[in-house]
Amino acid sequence: MPTALFFEVRPDEAEYLARELVDCGLDVHFFKEPLGPNSTVEISRAEIFSVFIRSHITAETLERMPHLKLIVTRSTGYDHIDLQACLQRGVLVCNIPGYGENTVVEHTFPLILPLSRNLQKVYLRTIRGDFSLEGLRGFDLKGRTLGVVGAGRIGLRVIRIAKGFDMEVLAHDIRPQALVAEIPGFRYVSLEDLLRKSDIVTLHVPLTSATYHLIKAKN
């Protein structure tokens, strides 16, 4: 019976997964802690791993798992897994492409709106007992330009909400889709144009070698 180890699992998640996997023919074990270099969990017998974002699977970790065949990360991002090392060892890696789409999108605008109204400055002043209004004038989102870096599933949903605020939208993506852009009404531009013309920029790209330090201060 193949052994499957699940890391970063809450008790309610363990209960759900155990129920759903009861007929899968797996020897399943759940652990609250993430998998890391100092993990004391016996992992050498595992054939399947399921992890979340705080577990880091490196080449050194893989050396401890000679029978490993499959890693499933319960997230969209996979930068916590050494894909090259997995490829060399013939270990299949799977992620969850649709994880948290609505959650991320709905969190984006609660970050943008306080920015447009200087709410952080207001908060910091009031906890100091300063109730002056000087320098706190915000701006309307209507008519402003939102730059969306990464127009995938999440980025496109952000764009739809932005259009509801009557914002202009510019997008940058490595795979522009002209037909998709016609429906929400935005334009694909280069990253340089987006940064130059946008009032607000939001990033919705995975962390990869191509996106690492995508935006950084000039030396």
What structural keywords apply?
219 residues; alpha/beta; Rossmann fold; 2 domains; four-stranded parallel beta sheet; 8 helices; 9 strands; 32% helix; elongated
3D structure, described in words:
This protein has 219 residues and is α/β, with parallel strands linked by helices. The chain has two domains: 3-94, Rossmann fold; 101-203, Rossmann fold. Helix content is 32%, strand content 16%. It contains eight helices and nine strands. The strands form two sheets. A five-stranded parallel beta sheet has the order 2-1-3-4-5, with helices on one face. It has a four-stranded parallel beta sheet with strand order 8-7-6-9, sandwiched between helices. The longest helix has 16 residues, at 101-116. The mean pLDDT is 91.
List the helices and strands and how they pair.
Elements: E1 3-6, H1 11-20, E2 27-30, E3 48-51, H2 59-63, E4 70-73, H3 83-89, E5 92-94, H4 101-116, H5 119-127, E6 145-149, H6 153-164, E7 168-172, H7 178-182, E8 187-188, H8 191-197, E9 200-203
Parallel strand pairs: 1-2, 1-3, 3-4, 4-5, 6-7, 6-9, 7-8
Rg from C-alpha positions?
22 Å
- The counted number of beta strands is 9
Order of strands in the sheet with most strands: 2-1-3-4-5
Percent helix, as a range, is 25-40%
Derived structural class = alpha/beta
The tally of helices reads: 8
Question: What's the CATH topology label of the largest domain?
Answer: Rossmann fold
Shape: elongated
The first-level CATH class of the largest domain is given as Alpha Beta
Q: CATH homologous superfamily name of the largest domain?
A: NAD(P)-binding Rossmann-like Domain
Mean pLDDT: 91
Total number of domains = 2
| Element-by-element helix/strand order | EHEEHEHEHHEHEHEHE
